[in-house]
Amino acid sequence: MKRFFSGVLLLMGLWEIEAQARAVTEGSIRPRRRHENDMDFSKYNPFYWEGRQAHFKVEDWTPDGENRMRFTFYTEWPQDAIPTRGPDFSAVYIGSPNAPSETERSKFALNIRMNHVADFKVFTAELGPGEFAAFRDRMKPGAVLTFEFRFFMNEGFDGWQKQKAANPHNISAYYSEFFRVKIGSPGLLIDDPDRTDTPPHPLRYAGGATTIPTVRVEPWKALQQQAWNITPANSQNFMNGRTWFHTDMVNGQHLLDDSDDKPSPFFEDERQRRAGFSASAYNVRSCSTCHANNGGSLLPAPGYPVHHTVVKTFDKNSGIPHPRMGQQLQTDGPDREGALKVDRWETRVVRLNDGTEVVLKKPRFYVESSMTDDTTGLSPRRPLAMVGLGLLEAVPESTLRDLAAKNNGTLRTFNGKVGRFGWKADKISLVDQIAEALRSDMGVLSNQRGTLDCVGSCQSGKGRLPDQALTDIETYVALLGVPPRMRPTDPAVQRGERIFDRLNCGSCHVKALKTGSSRFPELAYQDIQPFTDLLLHDMGPELADDAPGAIGRLWRTAPLWGLKNIRHATDSHQREFPPGNISLLWQDAHRVADRNRVQWLHDGRAESLMEAILWHGGEATNSMNAYKALNSGERQDLEAFLFDL
Predict the structure, then answer these.
(1) In this predicted structure, what is the pLDDT of residue 20?
(2) Residue 489, exposed/middle/buried by CB under 10 A (0-12, 13-18, 19+)?
(3) Fewest CB within a 10 Å sphere: which of 20, 174, 281, 381?
């Protein structure tokens, strides 16, 4: 039996074809406390990292002409399996994601108690000739079949009871995601945002097989979901990595997102094991502090301390790291090096060809520290969103070299390896990027980075982060799912794409790339739409930092996928939409999240896509001037396209 990963867009996930032409689909489950179309579906629940592994297998005999499908459900810890409470299987979705009733949003025609197979951890359900006859229009070959699992952990199990004793918010009743397959074909599909019985348009798969379905009711959580094709072999490490991403490296506590309502503490011995890794100077104490909802962070008002946007420090004349502060100013901790603040916002007005006036703003940062002098150079860097980073790492170096030859982009190489991560493309791999962020932003050492950036009286933490922790963080970051494009065939979106092409934006923001090999099979040989070439380009003097020479004007082409989701991630609206609000419709949540405040470019100066485009100079001057010549309708169409990505 041969198993492999499909790079074809419509064949999503791990799949196999047996000799009898039986189509088999496998997938991983992250236990949820609500249905897909309800509030709280996207949250991570208490102890999501322990005892919650689950996966499934779909065996489909219809390619052989036999109307039969078997669904096998596997769990890590035992489940209840009694007449009144046990794993249930639902299929043939007849509800509507748009219905005002919670029941109607999650309504299936078939609801079946699963058969216990082994150890209260393996269960099956079958759809046979009777079901195929009863739902002949919904279960014919080529039709989309949506299904869901519902299951109840055995509360008498020792592991669950230990969790409950430590955290009274522990949960035992769960749902799976809504999964979709095309009858007669292997592989998972994602959704169509407007129809429940239709395969999605291929362009919806922005991240190839990693692309997740639409995150509906909590759109601010879209960047936090696991890759849709994640394998059971990598699922636990993904969850472990998320715990480290949310660990306070000073006190060892598990940190919540701002919309979380149930505490998720570690057991005390685990908290102590994680505490004390930070040095005595840092910017933040966890990865999730800067990458709120796996997006970025907004700058505070002028005069307030800035921690989430970091500033690189160096000698203005030579470009070498600052002799007293190192490569980065650490703004917090007992031995902080100083404070970073925005002094003021400078403004200037740009007039478009149709007379529209646009105010461009630029933050002026300053450092309060006895270590600075007139030669201190600054380069502010806001946190980048966590979109498809594993896929970008899997793009072959040969592809980047070919792109550089075509568009005159600048390749940065380090010991023969091409840099591709960070604002200046100065990190060659995800591990390189993660290890440097741990060291510079949190003061956490590892075997990848064994010396601190902070100097003077700064003291290191209790030791180096374990190698497995770094590997788990890498797994988490690499296997985050890419949100789908929303409506790529919408007329306004298509008009906007033609304008994007006409302005030659795609010269640098390359629409489509293909990944090569990867240590994560989920990421290998995928067709993706990141809208970047991962190269450096001269963006002109207005965007330059204080670095001497050409490097000050060079910036890596920012990927454009997930722009809508990055905007959604800046505010969770927990006051308007509290947890448990089962009456909330997904369109209302998206409508509010679409108005979230955003900041683009390396220092957060642009609060709209229009502003970001108008700051382009250097190699992008011609494209920027062509943008200024667009009329209002054309500008709106271009934004419709960009926010569809």
Answers:
(1) 54
(2) exposed
(3) 20
pTM of the entire predicted model: 0.95
Position 456 scores a pLDDT of 80
- Is 282 in contact with 445 (CB distance < 8 Å)? no
Residue 8 per-residue DSSP state: S
pLDDT of residue 12: 41
Domain check: are 382 and 530 in the same one? no
The pLDDT assigned to 227 comes to 98
Q: How confident is the model at residue 83, as a pLDDT?
A: 86
pLDDT tens profile 24-63: 999 999 999 999 999 999 999 999 999 999 999 999 999 9
507/620 Cα distance (integer angstroms): 10
Are 266 and 342 contained in the same domain?
A: yes
- Rounded-to-integer distance, Cα 282 and Cα 259, Å: 25
CA end-to-end distance (rounded Å), the chain: 37
Domain identity same for 251 and 170:
no
Nearest C-alpha neighbor of 278 from the set 431, 470, 464, 434: 464
The single residue listed with the structure tokens 């896509």 is: 609
The whole-number pLDDT of residue 397 equals: 97
Q: Which domain holds residue 48?
A: 4-200
Identify whether the C-beta of residue 50 lies closer than 8 Å to the C-beta of residue 159. yes
d(CA 454, CA 437): 13
Nearest Cα to 216, choosing from 242, 239, 194? 194
Measuring CA to CA, which residue among 325, 361, 369, 322 is closest to residue 345? Answer: 361
Residues of the chain scoring pLDDT < 70? 1-21
- Domain membership of residue 236 (yes or no) is no
Instruction: Tell me how far CA of residue 21 lies from CA of 35, 130, 185, 558, 632, in angstroms.
Output: 33, 22, 10, 44, 55
pLDDT of residue 56: 98
Number of domains in the chain: 3
- 115 CB burial (10 A radius; 0-12, 13-18, 19+): middle
How high is the pLDDT of residue 497?
A: 98
Yes or no: say if 55 and 196 are a contact pair by the CB < 8 Å rule: no
Beta strands 14-17 and 23-29: pairing type?
antiparallel
